[in-house]
Specification:
alpha/beta, Molybdenum Cofactor Biosythetic Enzyme, Chain A, 2 domains, six-stranded mixed sheet, three-stranded antiparallel sheet, 9 helices, 11 strands
Length: about 250
């Protein structure tokens, strides 16, 4: 099956636009942003923002235009099916001020797949792409996503979203691999917050995050360190572990 052509641009920042009333009402538990964040991190591309909007065309257009201008790439999730509330493709077309047209190659693929008699109006609707967009076909669905400029339009169904992202993952592969290490902590965050902040300020190239697990008299948590340089990661980890050891010894005195 054809895929969107390889994008040679190295993305430094990516945003995800989640579209759907079902997410905002709690009907559906959103999983695609988590999957994308993890998948992109693993290939050296970090997710910078997640925006969630309702099925309101003006809101989708305005948010997409902002993200398109602010970030190197945007991934949308949801709203590309055959029903009245599936307005993402039209909104994307309007955001770029281009018409939404039936894509002849996609119609042919769908005809071959379903048969001409089974190519209903709803299925034809899912073959409409913004003018100039490239279809994104994945293993899990014959109905395409789309790539227009730096915007990737994906389905909201998690297994299709995952397959569509995987089909264009080389577009997001930077050639650098992020490293993430975790340190288990049995101290309250308040006891080491200042010192951890100083370590972060002294090492701006390394991302340090503190995440509590259980609070109270027996606190647990973890400190996560991430970056692309193994030696720098090791150095920062050593600083943090020494700081925690000092804090623990002081607590036990």
């Amino acid at each position: 099956m054809p895929h969107a052509e390889h994008n040679t641009t190295s993305f430094q920042s990516v945003a995800i636009l989640i579209i759907g009333n079902e997410v905002l009402s709690g009907l559906t538990r959103e999983a695609n942003a988590w999957f994308a964040a993890k998948t992109l991190f693993d290939v050296g591309c970090k997710l910078s923002e997640v925006a969630i909007v309702p099925d309101i065309q003006e809101t989708i257009i305005n948010t997409l235009q902002r993200l398109h201008q602010q970030y190197d790439a945007v991934i949308t999730s949801g709203g590309i099916g055959p029903t009245h509330d599936d307005i993402t493709m039209q909104s994307v077309a309007d955001a770029f001020d281009v018409p939404l047209l039936e894509h002849a190659e996609t119609i042919q693929l769908m005809t071959n797949f379903y048969g001409e008699d089974a190519l209903t109006e709803g299925r034809r609707r899912m073959a409409r792409l913004p003018q100039g967009a490239k279809p994104i076909i994945c293993e899990q669905s014959i109905c395409p996503g789309a790539l227009i400029q730096n915007v990737y339009v994906f389905a909201g169904i998690p297994h299709i979203f995952a397959s569509q992202l995987e089909s264009v993952l080389t577009h997001f592969t930077t050639g650098k691999t992020f490293i993430r290490q975790e340190i288990e902590v049995s101290l309250p965050e308040s006891s080491f917050a200042r010192e951890l902040g100083k370590i972060q300020s002294s090492n701006p190239d390394i991302e340090i995050g503190s995440y509590p697990g259980r609070c109270g008299k027996q606190p647990t948590g973890k400190i996560c360190i991430s970056g692309i340089d193994k030696k720098r990661i090791a150095s920062v980890r050593n600083q943090i572990e020494h700081m925690l050891k000092d804090k623990k010894n002081h607590e036990n005195q």
